[in-house]
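Whether sequence alone determines local backbone shape is best considered at the level of individual chains. When preparing material for the folding task, we compiled for one chain both its residues and its backbone structure tokens. No coordinates are needed to read the tokens, only the vocabulary itself. For completeness, the protein is quoted in full, as a sequence line and a line of structure tokens:
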Amino acid sequence: MTWEKDNFMQGLLNKILPLLPKIGKIAGYIISAAIVVLLLIKIFVKDPGYYKINKQEQKTIQLKIDSINKKQDSLSLKIENLEKGNILFYEIISKNNELIDANNKKLETLRRLYNEKINSVDHYTVTDLDSFFRANYGQYYK
């Protein structure tokens, strides 16, 4: 089919070139530019048959597409499972943070009570302290 195009182009050139001196310079330039454009199209544009794919290649390509789609579905499922796992971990982390906050409140309460008891010692008199130690540690106190 390409040799038919070559013959057509050659015949077109053979018919147009003898007419150029008669038409004039401007028309000659326009026709020459058109010929150059046609030649460039012929050089750079492939024959439509070049792009045709036979049925076996089409089946092979379709199998590859199907394989890629299956992998994509598998990856989408894995991503969905990972996102569910992330939600579960966030819930566990949230519960643990609540436990930590509750323990911190308890710890703060114990610290406050401990400090109150420690500070209450300052209010005892020497006689109070002496009687306390005699009552609790009398066998060691002499």
